[in-house]
Records
---
Amino acid sequence: VHFPSFDKNNIETKGTIDNAGGLYRYIKYDFFYSDKSKGSVLVLKKENSFLDFLTKWGIIIILIIFLVAITAMLFLNQFLSKTIVKPLENLGRTMSEIREGDLMIETPILPPKTAKEVHELTSNFESMRLALLDSIQEQRNLEKNRKDLIASISHDLKTPITTIIGYVEGLQEGVAETPEKREKYLKTIHSKSLALNSLIEELFLYSKFDAEAIQFYFERIQLTKFLTHIVEEFQLYNQEVQLELNVEEDVYVYIDRMQMNRAIINLIENSMKFKKQTELLYIILEVIVVDDLVEIKVRDNGQGIPESKLPYVFDHFYRGEEARTSTTGGSGLGLAIVKQIVSKHNGHVKIQSKLDYGTTVTIILKKA
């Protein structure tokens, strides 16, 4: 025991001593016996074991904590780098490529353990890329359609105007010497002017449909009465066509009277333009109910359309044969307008045809 030294003036001493490697707190009283010999009273209490532990192992513990912290930081850094940082860097490079205009670059494939938030971000980015790609493609298609439309308009306007100019100049220069020839020139000018006016009207109508500038007013209509009125009115002025109506079941539909009338008349007139020269034209309007759908079929025995050209007949200014322009007077907008009208009714239109055997156009609407 490292006993504290005697202090003759000591009444009470406090401190810490080392006893066989153990720390003790103490209180000591020093005094003299009657024979003047020295005496001391020492009260010991073992020091706290935790403090003892810290005294002996504190530095080692601090070093261990420091090493564990560094190891954990390195592991966390590696984990974050693999699951978040690197995927975000790859995504950033993809964004840079897209900013330069390369929309075809694919979004990088993420490692399996990538953070959920990064997966969601990448998925949203890929959806945005695809939407942007579709938008650009649609814009290109619209631009191509616009250019084709302008080219078609230019061609269709130029043909009758050139004819009119030629015949007017012929009249001015005295080419038509006889009254009969002048009458022929004037009739040609008149017919070409009518064709030009009809083309402009149909073009104006098509552009209004395309710009959604025409208001539709839908009514619940009894289809049989509606079609009967069209057939009766049409045959009053067109005796050269045999027009019939076959109704399987009388139904009601929601339609705009004026616009649906326009669509069906367009189909009938289209059949008349391409009828066979040697046969009487038969046109049959047929109504077929299939579940909750109503099919309005316009069937004729006309020239028919080659199968290879069927996918294009509803495109604007498409005629199938360029030679038909002058012989039929068609603008190439009739079926395109029909498609626009039916689409506004939330329906769709399809066509079946066989060359030399006739054509069937089907308008499909929902039953009211």
Note: Confidence is low (pLDDT under 50) at residues 321-329.
---
Amino acid sequence: MSWHPRQLGRQTGRTFVVTGANSGIGLEAARELVGRGAHVVLAVRDTAKGEHAAAHLAGPGSTSLVELDLSDLDRVADCATTLLDRHDDLSALICNAGVMGGPFLLTAQGFERQMATNHLGHAALVAALWPLLHASASRVVVVSSTEARGGQLSPDTTREQLLNPAPYDGRQVYRNTKQANLLFAQELHRRCRKARSPVSAVAVHPGASATNLFARQLEEAGHRRLGSISKVVTAVLLQSAAAGALSTLRALDPSTPSGAFVGPARFGQLRGRPQLLDVYPSAKDPATAARLWALTEQALGTPLPV
């Protein structure tokens, strides 16, 4: 029997933080949660786009906005401070935002942009929010991708290979960031269980969904016309963002165990209803996960929780 969003039930009185909630899968997950009565905090880089998105989320629930630039660790810290000041309970943190491809760019802290945004920023947010996450017995949902299958992180990965790879291969770096997402979720689950923390962690992949990632990649490379065309093509060929968001919603279902990996399984995991999947071989090795954890702590300059 396939999973259906109605199994998630009402979410009245619960608060969720969704990064990158102004478009794509994050927006669709937020829409479903607001429709079920939840309060959803849209954590977005562009607050004008966030306000526009929030204005189109209707339902018995409610929304609020917080600025979050995951590529800048100082801005991540500011966002966490705001969240801690505003909320005393948090049902889940959905680490959804991400960037894909584009030219080699460095962040304010000197890290390669894709890894900094997709992995480091989310890890820093989890660390900064840990007192609230722990006290609330929250669930951390990390959005990975089928691209994680091609990640090349290993127990021998160096700091430079993770954060400043040379020569630069944008596609491979993206795969590594998605592998890092899956590794991080698995390691967080293991450490929470070992420490008997009530926090749970679930990783998801949305399949091949029509989002802004492809168009943004082309636009940042200077191909604005191709970016516009890609939006039309992806809308025709790929499943909708709403369908992609079903994996995130199933990850929030209490019946989904901590440590699970959720995503569509049909057509090479490109589409279909979300199912419980086997973790990809690239993210099964605890030694690789431990190495990523250590390198992440070095980059952040502070121990991760648990």
Note: The chain has a mean pLDDT of 93.
